[in-house]
Design goal:
Blueprint (H helix, E strand, L loop, with lengths): L9 H8 L1 H4 L5 H9 L1 H13 L8 H13 L3 E4 L8 E7 L5 E7 L28 H22 L3 E8 L7 H7 L8 E3 L2 E3 L7 E2 L2 E10 L15 H15 L8 E8 L10 E10 L2 H22 L2 E10 L6 H14 L6 H11 L21 E2 L6 H5 L4 E2 L2 E3 L10 H7 L2 H23 L1 H15 L25
Parallel strand pairs: 3-4, 3-5, 5-13, 6-14, 7-12
Antiparallel strand pairs: 1-2, 2-4, 8-10, 8-11, 9-10
Length: 484
């Protein structure tokens, strides 16, 4: 499938020019409601940070977010789309108003435990850590949602605000199962945000992604006394990895192939009878991703033949690239300009200066208080299951400076800031922006209609959503060890 052209029809451009007139500034009450929850939002974010849970294992995290939303008057539908930690929370009445969805992530990453201090300090006895800041992601969405709920009640306005608790963004494709189950079918607009080292409402693409685990089975034997009687599953993994590395020269530009050997045996003197390697393939075009993962599967069969082993493949994830929406991006940009960037106090500055000593890139700390220029054609290098939502519902995203400038995602530095006051401040800004943008959309059906028109134009006539994810049930155990 080729991506549609990213031009916007002139009629849509006209609609965007009307946005300043159509989208009135949100009443101060919605910002007051965000700020009134700020202390509790920080507590929720810290609680999720202190108990980091991996994909599909976010039991306590999901329960806490649901508890907060229930206390704010939301009705909760839990365990949706076959995922025990997924939920949909609803507030308001549709009437003549739109349904606005806010996406809330919460999962952590393995092997990333780190204290909330500016030097490398792993936490003894802990493995996971919030290296992508999803603790802040979920907490800020709740902060924005409860504020919008208060605004809807105070104004007696039509419209419904929903929070989608979306598990396992890190490789588990949780939102794909929710999309496939039709949970977004009646949603008019979806909003999301992500922790970052900068403040930006730029819209653009991401990389489509298919992930999965190749499991080789061999024959165990004593590696010294009778190696001829063994067939090494690890040899199969290494043969596949070697072929994958040679393949890199012969794939389309922009393709990314990553892998980790998740099981290579238990002892050097035993020929491994089981081994596993976990692969990601990415490209902006989903068709390229499908082709390359197919070539890897062929290589795996060849590796098994050459080593006298057997191989199986379990797909664990598959996500589309993001479909940008400039109409919604302009709304988010206006809200971000109203809120502004993140201002450090002395303690924040001291923390940031010390942490930056461990970074290769060290932008000025003042950039946390600035806004990146708006653009609608940003090319991102990561993948997200928000992509599948964006091909089914007009979707818009935001990032705020929750991390010290120069911090890369998926790093111990990101974990540290996500549990520190710097992270809390960036997340509060995100909640403010999301609340303002949501209220602006609730007040402007013309903008929602313009966003839908752009969405249909970008998807292209006759588009039919076919998930890249090729499995029926969520891989609830995808973070577990090898299946023997």
């Amino acid at each position: 499938m080729k991506l549609p052209r990213c031009c916007v029809l002139s009629v849509l451009a006209s609609a965007v020019l009307l946005l300043p007139g159509m989208v009135a500034a949100a009443p101060p009450s919605v910002l007051a409601a965000v700020d009134g929850y700020a202390a509790r939002q920080a507590e929720v974010g810290r609680a999720l940070w202190a108990q980091p849970e991996l994909g599909y294992q976010e039991t306590r995290s999901s329960a806490l977010l649901q508890q907060e939303l229930r206390a704010a008057g939301f009705s909760i539908q839990a365990g949706v789309a076959g995922m025990p930690t997924a939920f949909v929370a609803r507030y308001g009445r549709r009437g003549n108003g739109p349904v606005i969805a806010l996406l809330a992530e919460m999962d952590a990453l393995p092997g990333m435990a780190q204290a909330a201090v500016p030097t490398r300090s792993p936490i003894p006895g802990q493995d996971a850590g919030q290296a992508c800041g999803h603790n802040l992601f979920g907490a800020a969405v709740v902060g924005a949602a409860q504020a919008v709920a208060q605004w809807l009640k105070a104004n007696g306005s039509d419209g419904e605000i929903r929070v989608y608790g979306t598990p396992a963004e890190e490789g588990g494709s949780g939102k794909v199962y929710m999309t496939r189950a039709g949970l977004f079918d009646d949603v008019d607009v979806a909003l999301h945000w992500h922790p970052s080292a900068e403040n930006s409402a730029a819209q653009g693409t991401s990389l489509a992604n298919i992930s999965g685990k190749f499991r080789f089975k061999g024959i165990a034997a004593h590696a010294a006394l009778s190696p001829e009687r063994g067939r090494s599953a690890l040899d199969g993994v290494e043969a596949l990895d070697h072929m994958a590395n040679m393949m890199r020269e012969h794939v389309p530009d922009g393709t990314r192939i990553h892998y980790v050997i998740t099981d290579g045996g238990a002892a050097p003197n035993v020929v491994p009878d089981a081994a596993e390697v976990y692969y990601y393939v990415r490209h902006v075009d989903p068709a390229v991703v499908r082709d390359v993962i197919g070539r890897l599967q062929q290589a795996a069969r060849g590796a098994a033949m050459g080593t006298g082993t057997e191989v199986g493949f379990e797909p664990t994830g598959g996500v589309y690239s993001l479909l940008p929406n400039d109409v919604l991006g302009q709304v988010m940009q206006q809200a971000l300009q109203q809120v502004g960037g993140v201002v450090y106090d002395r303690a924040d500055t001291a923390f940031a200066e010390q942490l930056q000593q461990s970074l290769e890139r060290r932008p000025a700390l003042s950039t946390a208080a600035t806004l990146a220029p708006y653009r609608a054609d940003h090319a991102g290098g990561a993948s997200t299951d928000v992509g599948d939502v964006s091909w089914n519902v007009p979707t818009v995203g935001l990032s705020t400076a929750t991390w010290v400038p120069g911090t890369p995602a998926h790093s111990w530095q990101a974990v540290a800031a996500s549990g520190a006051p710097i992270g809390d401040k960036g997340a509060l800004n995100a909640a403010r922006v999301l609340a303002l943008a949501t209220v602006a959309l609730l007040q402007s059906p013309q903008t929602v209609s313009a966003a839908r028109a752009e969405f249909e134009q970008r998807r292209g006539a006759g588009f039919r959503y076919t998930p890249l994810l090729e499995r029926t049930d969520p891989p609830l155990d995808y973070r577990s060890k090898i299946k023997r």
